[in-house]
Design goal:
This protein is of the alpha+beta class and about 110 residues long. About 30% of the residues lie in helices and about 10% in strands. The chain has a two-stranded antiparallel ribbon.
């Protein structure tokens, strides 16, 4: 059987070619390795400059560490009121009239 199509691995008579085309890495793979080395170097520099860096190597996003949420005591929470269809609403000490209004509310 004669191979009339174009093939890199087989010649026109069907005999396998002796080629080194598939043995060495392509230029694309070499370029990716170079870019990965540069990316790793930049990531090391960023981590040295910003110790709280939490970005992932997949995205490369530079994000600062999230600050811990802490209660300051500015507004005192009295409780949680339930409005229409189980809608929870916080009730603070400085707005007691709001709690009275919710208590009087009817369906």
């Amino acid at each position: 059987m004669i191979n009339l199509g174009s093939s890199l691995r087989y010649g026109p008579h069907g005999k396998k070619r002796k080629t080194k085309a598939f043995s060495k890495p392509s230029k694309h793979k070499q370029l990716i390795r170079v870019q990965q080395k540069l990316f790793d170097q930049v990531m090391r520099e960023i981590k040295e400059e910003y110790p709280s860096y939490e970005g992932t190597p997949l995205t490369g996003a530079i994000t600062p560490k999230k600050e811990v949420m802490q209660y300051t005591g500015e507004r005192k929470l009295i409780g949680i009121a339930t409005m229409h269809k189980s809608n929870a609403v916080p009730i603070f000490e400085d707005d007691k009239q709001h709690a009275i209004d919710i208590a009087r509310m009817r369906r």
